[in-house]
Amino acid sequence: MEMEIGFTKLQGNGNDFILIDEFEQEAIPEEMKGAFAALFCDRRFGIGGDGVLFLQASDAADIRMRLFQPDESEAAMCGNGIRCLAKYAYDAGYVKESCSVETGAGIVPVKMGYTDDEFTATITMPTPAFERSAIPAVGDGEYKEEILNFTVYAANTGVPHAVIFVKEIGAVDIAAVGPVIRNHPTFPEGANVNFVEEAGDGSLRIRTFERGVEDETFSCGTGATASAAVARHLGKTGDTVRVETKGGPLVIRFGETVTMEGPAETVFTGVISF
């Protein structure tokens, strides 16, 4: 029996998502959420997206975010995704300018609003972790490995990220080297892979190969945060880091907490049969 499902397509710096509103009631059965993501994230035979966001009610926060990816896996955290979710929830009247979002990586505070019709959200990100046990990665101490002639660092910003500093990110064959590092045996759960170029004035340019999408994406919020965190940890940047992604800039700020600021936009809405 087919179901008619309403959806909203949103994007944050080109990192695009299909959002299903389950705030009042379940729309997609639990056991079908992964398959739903695989089917409709397809850019030729589906709606197209880097993942499916499910907006749900929460007993622990104002709202709950769940993200299923094109490979049917569920991600604990997504910085661009949470901005898109927050925009939808704000527009729908579920939350005010300040709210909390339950994620697989914990409760995430969000502040948001419109300036001249442009929506911007500031996310308090999970505290970056550099120890291998927290990434997770094999071994002890902080992560530093030589893989494919790259020096690879790593941090967890809600999900695991490998971070590699290169002279020119445009020269990296990310489709070839990304999967090798993503699946390296030192990462038992795999890792997202970020190639980072220092752009001057303490700013960074990055390209990200995303675990679960299994391809390069236009932007990755947790990846931008991890890249900025590793760069700061190594003394390459200060406490405010502008990170240029293929889809646009994000601003990462380090203080008592770590925040990420960036836009989100509604692209279109529709109804599908499933």
UniProtKB/TrEMBL annotation:
Its main location: cytoplasm. The record marks 161, 210 as: Could be important to modulate the pK values of the two catalytic cysteine residues. Coiled coil: none annotated. Its EC number is 5.1.1.7. GO terms for molecular function: diaminopimelate epimerase activity. The keyword Cytoplasm applies. It is found in: Cytoplasm. It comes from the Archaea. Homodimer. HAMAP family: DAP_epimerase. Belongs to the diaminopimelate epimerase family. This is Diaminopimelate epimerase. It comes from Methanoculleus thermophilus. The gene is dapF.
